[in-house]
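Could someone model pyridoxal-5'-phosphate with this protein?
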Amino acid sequence: MNASLEENYHSIQKQIALSAEKAGRDAREVKLLAVSKKMEPERIRVVWQLGHRLFGENRVQEAKVKIPEMPVGGEWHFIGGLQSNKAKDAVECFDVIESVDRWDLAQELQKRLEATGRRMRIMLEVNVGGEAAKHGCSPERVGELFQKVMSLSRLEVIGLMAIPPFREDPEMARPFFVKLREIRDRLQDSHGVPLPELSMGMSHDYPVAISEGSTLVRIGSALFGPRGV
Ligand SMILES: *Cc1c(COP(=O)(O)O)cnc(C)c1O
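Reply:
Sure, complex below.
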């Protein structure tokens, strides 16, 4: 099982490099976020031992238990829906929160960060498919959210994150990746600040996301295998 985990890791890295090359991009611009949700620390440690340090989790409760069991020195991203009442724990556990999608949450994070004296890198999550069941700020309102969040001294917005509607055919996700990139470009232009990160692409569609400018692909099942239910 661990042998296949190692194989998966190397073949994903190879695919990332290949997709970047095809798009005329430098492969070093694309980072792999190993999405370790629901995975036991032993499995995560296998990936750690390959030299990997960048991990993603989507539940604060789970991460609170798991992250302390891992060696220090990793970079942990929160990628799930975040309730404001979990902001304190999220700030304690994570290095980057990718799923900031509303003003009250941003304010709560600011407050918790002030209490700890820290700053934090965040991304704004955009609901690019306009799906009612999904988290994320609507594309129409992300400019306003960005404007307001820039006033919060403890938060540094480094980019945007999106989870497009799921379709069997990964090509169907392409317009949504384009949309996120265009929103990012517009925000950069109108505010005159860099937003280098585009967190987009998952196990089944990351080559497409890379061809549209992704800098961070969030990969769970293609690396660790199925999560079950
Ligand atoms: C679970 C999850 C992923 C990884 O999904 P896979 O299809 O297993 O690669 C990526 N992003 C988010 C936000 C997730 O919750």
